[in-house]
Fold:
Amino acid sequence: MTVVFVTVGSTHFDQLTDLVDTQPVLQALHEIGCRKLIVQYGKAERKIASGQRVLRDDLPENGRENTTLRYRQRHEVEVEAYDYKPSLQGDFEQADLVIGHAGAGTIMETLSMEGTKMIVVVNDTLMHNHQTELAFKMRDLNHLKACNCSTLLDTIKTIPTTTFTPYNPHLSSQRIMKYVENLVKHKQAAKILEQEEINAENRQEETEEIQPSTTANNTNNNRASTQTIPLMVVYVLLAVFAFLLARTAVSLQ
Structure:
């Protein structure tokens, strides 16, 4: 496991590129045999510097007390870092282990390299990151390891004892293409269902807007009816009064 290649493609995954340049991860890589770490960090905000990384965890316990012993057991990992290259082919070919994001191109490129192991690190901060499902499918087929940044350290430690199923482009691709096809259909159906839910919510809002107007109209009609009833009563009373007045006049005659 002499060379480890970390790649994030044309995007950025700062959490991953920052993580692989920390002492715990460098120490774990050194313990599995890594002597050179290549980091392609893409559009990361923090540019990783190339150079030697001294692993402080390998210093003797009394190193701080006796400076002459400080570097007696010095171990280093050479780090080569860059944002982009015209081609990453050479780095893929020399790598014994590739640690990459869940991009389909990165996954398929790595698996095409005979004997190269892979860890796919899922970016949990991305919403609707459908690429991760391909990574999990390849993991289920035992072609690679899949984890997130919080479990990367432990995953690295399992690599030396892990035996992967070699990727056969002719056999595996048929199963993967079938899976992707079903996945696309599922996503399309989910998208249609989501749109239907949005349309239903819009219709509900329109109905709620119409209902207050209808209620207001009904209220006005009720008020008009309420005002009409007393007038009818007055007319009836006047008619009765006129009738009684007429009868009284007749009686007096």
Summary: The two ends are 134 Å apart (CA to CA). Strands lie at 3-7, 36-40, 51-54, 76-82, 97-100, 117-122, 145-148. The first strand starts at residue 3 and ends at 7. The CA atoms of residues 97 and 117 lie 5 Å apart.
